[in-house]
Design a protein that fits this description.
homodimer, alpha/beta, Nucleotidyltransferase, domain 5, 2 domains, five-stranded mixed sheet, 8 helices, 13 strands
C-alpha cells in the first residue's frame, strides 16, 4: 500500500512496549520487553532491536515505509534526544537515547517524556483532535502534564516545560519525591489519593469499608470502587482530590487559556467520579472570563494503547 | 530614507500616548491626548486622529512609510481587535477598536493588552532581545503578564491567556478586584505592597517612619524609599512581597520553563530592592532542575517610552 508508518516505543520503569502504527492510529503490530531486566544499556539496546526489528520487517513487507521512531520515556528530553537522570529507570546519568536508537535502526528518531507523548497522542488520534490549545494531565503514580499551545507542544528553553505535577498548591504541605513540599502530585495522583484516604481514616470517626482493610490494599482503585459503592469516607477522599485539582486547573487556565483540559490515566478512568466534581471546583475557582468555557474531558485513548500511540505520534510531527 | 515605520498607541485609563517608531526602537515623534475626557468613542476617535495624523504626515514627508498601527489597551483582545469590558476605560461593553482605527487611518492595525504589548516591546527592543522563551511581569496598580514561547506571544484559544496576576497564591487570602480571593496581584503590585504595609503597621509594634504618615501618603514608592533608607518595617513589607512573588515565579517556571523572567514597572524600578530577594525566594522554591538557571532581570525600556514602544512592536510582528 506504500503508506508511511511510525514506530512508537514507550519506555517504562518495568516494561518497554512498542508497536507499528499507521497515520490513523491503528496499531498494526506490537510487542514488549522488560526494561528492568537490562541494567546495562547496550544489552537493553540489543534486546530492543531483537523485539522491534521483526515487527518492522513484517510491516514493511507489503511496501509500507517506516517514517521514523518516536520514543516516550520518563525524563526524556526532546531537544537533546536524551533520558536525563530518570529515578525509575535502571540507567544512571544522561543516556543519549536518540543516537543509540538511530544507530541501531537507521531511522529518524525523536524522544520526549511520557506525558508530552500522551499529549501528542491525544492531539493526533484522541480527544484533542483539532484542538490547538489544551493541557494534558496524566494521573498515574505521579501527575504528569503536556501543554499544547497553537498546535505545538511546549518544551520551554531547556526541553523540560510542563511539570504541572510540581506546582506547589499547599505551602508547607505534603512532602514530595522532588524534595519540596506541597506539590500538586502529592495530592492528585494514585499515591496522593491514598495519602488522603489514610489521613481521613486517622482523623475522622466516620464508618468506612476501608477501616478493615490492610494498608497495602488501600489503593486508588479500591478507593474509587468504594466511593462508587457509596462509602462516605472514600467519597470524601475523591472530593478532596477533585477540589485541589479543580483549583490548580483554574490557575493553569490563567496561564495559557486552553480550549480544553484532558485527563488521562487510572484515576481518570473511574467514569464521572473524579471529573464531575473537578469540573465544578474548576469553574468555581476560575477567573470569570473562563467560567464554564474551558472543557474538562477524559482521554479517548485506551490505556493499553496510549503509550505506543503517544510515542508514535511524535513521528508525524517530524519535519521532512 | 524609505524606511518602514510603526505607529504605537497606548490607551490608558487617564491618558492615551502615541508615537512613530523606527525598526530600532527610536521614537521619532510622539504625543498624547486625555482618554477620560472622551466618554463618547466617536469623539475620542476624532481626537485621536487629530493627534496622530500630523505626526504621520511629518514622519512620512521624507519618503518613509507607515507599515501599520499597534495598539496596547487594557482588556485588548488580539484575535478580535477589540477592547472588551475594560473597567478602567470610559467606554462600556465591546469596542471594535481595530476596525475603528483602520477606518480612520487606512493602515493595518493590531490590538493587544498592555502587558502583552510590553512583552513584545521587551523582545523587540529591550532586555528580552534574542530570548525566545520568557515571561514578562508588569507591576503597576495591578500585576499584568505576557508570556512568550518559541518567540511567539501566547494568546490562548480566546486571546486572554497570561493572566498571571489572577493566579490564586493564597486560598481565602486578600479580596481581589476580580471578585475572588488570594490573587497574586493583591500581594504583588503597587496596591498590594501598600496593603501589606498597612497590615504590618497594625499588627506589629516595630518603629517605622510610616507610623506618622497619613494613610494616603503610604504609597509603594514611599515604602520602597523608606526600605532603601533602612526602615525595618518597610523592608519587611518588601521582603514579604518578594517572598510571594518568588514562590509564584517558581510555579510559573514549571509551566513554560522560560529562559528569563522580566520585571517591569514602578515596583521593579527600585534597583535591586525587590529583584534581589525575589530571585532568592524563586530559587529556594523552584524544582531542582531549574535552580539558579532562570534569569530574573529588570526591563531595559524607559518607563516613559515603554508603552509606545510595546504597542509599536506589534507592527513588526504583522504578517506581510
Amino acid at each position: 500500500m506504500n503508506q508511511p508508518l511510525a514506530v512508537g516505543i514507550d519506555i517504562g520503569g518495568t516494561n518497554t512496549v512498542f508497536g507499528i502504527v499507521d497515520r490513523r492510529g491503528n496499531i498494526l503490530y506490537q510487542g514488549a520487553i522488560k526494561t528492568k531486566d537490562h541494567p546495562d544499556i547496550s544489552v537493553y539496546m540489543d534486546a530492543l532491536h531483537k523485539g522491534v526489528s521483526p515487527l518492522i520487517d513484517k510491516a514493511t513487507a507489503t511496501g509500507d515505509q517506516i517514517k521514523g521512531i518516536g520514543i516516550g520515556a520518563p525524563n526524556g528530553n526532546f531537544y537533546h534526544g536524551t533520558i536525563e537522570f530518570a529515578p525509575n529507570l535502571p540507567w544512571k546519568g544522561v543516556i543519549p537515547l536518540a543516537n543509540l536508537i538511530r544507530e541501531q535502526f537507521g531511522f529518524p528518531v525523536e524522544v520526549t517524556n511520557d506525558a508530552n507523548a500522551a499529549a501528542i497522542g491525544e492531539m493526533t488520534y484522541g480527544a484533542a483532535k483539532g484542538i490547538k490549545d489544551f493541557i494534558m494531565i496524566t494521573l498515574g503514580t505521579g501527575l504528569g502534564s503536556g501543554i499544547v499551545i497553537n498546535g505545538q507542544l511546549v518544551y520551554g528553553h531547556d526541553g523540560f516545560a510542563g511539570e504541572l505535577g510540581h506546582v506547589v498548591v499547599e505551602r508547607e504541605g505534603r512532602h514530595c519525591g522532588c524534595g519540596r513540599y506541597g506539590c500538586l502530585e502529592t495530592y492528585v495522583s494514585a499515591t496522593g489519593i491514598v495519602r488522603t484516604m489514610l489521613e481521613l481514616l486517622r482523623e475522622k470517626k466516620t464508618d468506612s469499608v476501608m477501616r478493615d482493610m490492610k494498608t497495602e490494599d488501600i489503593t486508588s482503585k479500591a478507593i474509587c470502587d468504594a466511593a462508587l459503592e457509596g462509602d462516605q469516607l472514600a467519597q470524601e477522599a475523591v472530593d478532596y482530590t477533585a477540589n485541589i485539582l479543580g483549583m490548580a486547573l483554574a490557575n493553569y487556565i490563567a496561564f495559557s487559556a486552553p480550549e480544553a483540559i484532558v485527563l488521562f490515566g487510572g484515576l481518570a478512568r473511574a467514569g464521572d467520579l473524579l471529573i464531575e466534581p473537578t469540573r465544578r471546583y474548576m469553574n468555581d475557582n476560575v477567573l470569570r472570563i473562563w467560567k464554564d468555557k474551558v472543557k474538562l474531558i477524559n482521554s479517548e485513548l485506551r490505556e493499553s494503547d496510549a503509550a505506543i500511540l503517544g510515542a508514535s505520534a511524535l513521528v508525524w510531527e517530524m519535519k521532512e
